Amino acid sequence: ERDSRGAEMCPVCFSDVVSPIRLQCGHSWCKSCFENYLIASIDNKAFPLKCLGAEAKCSQTISVTAARDVLSANDFDAVADAAFHSYVYARPDEFHYCPTANCPQIYRTAPPGTILQCPSCLARICPSCHTLAHDEISCADRDTDGDKLFKEWMDNHDVKACPGCKASIERIAGCNHMTCTRCQTHMCWEC
Questions:
Q1: Using 50, 70 and 90 to split pLDDT, how confident is the model at 162?
Q2: DSSP letters along the chain, please?
Q3: pLDDT on residue 4
Q4: Which GO BP terms sit in this record (predicted)?
Q5: pLDDT tens-digit profile of 92-110?
């Protein structure tokens, strides 16, 4: 995009491009704006990252190479890690985290009746209800008193489970249209 003088404008700060970074789509960004956009993605998790050119109508995905060329090694690793976790959270029918506290292991879903073993912590996992394995009792019967108490607490405190990833969500204010920050699932708070 260009201003009335024909100078390239950054799609973030809408000023003349300083230390330009040109993406594959042809749009140019200020180097600092591009770097800050990438770093902000760690928290806002808006993956895949898209160019904001053409008044944010450009649909070109930002390449890994473009990100690596601008970011420090630590920042690039943080963005890549956030993108990976965003990918996993956006696919709750395909991937799950080990249910053991503080275990970072991810596993793919498996057929019912199978018992998985976490390669990191060696916990046995039920792939149907995604909890620790519960031999000889069904997933429905496994609903413990603690689970019932937590569901009761959620009901009493206006907390709901995301329909996509089942993360607990609390609505403090605003409209009823919600987006899960974990898996990006859209939902209506009232429905």
A1: confident
A2: -B-TTS-BB-TTT-SB-SSEEE-TTS-EEEHHHHHHHHHHHHHH--PSPB--HHHHT--PBPPHHHHHHHS-HHHHHHHHHHHHHHHHHT-TTTEEE-SSTT---EEE---TT--EE-TTT--EEETTTTEE--TTS-TTTT--HHHHHHHHHHHHTTEEE-TTT--EEE--SS-SEEE-TTT--EEES--
A3: 53
A4: proteasome-mediated ubiquitin-dependent protein catabolic process; protein linear polyubiquitination
A5: 889 999 999 889 999 998 8
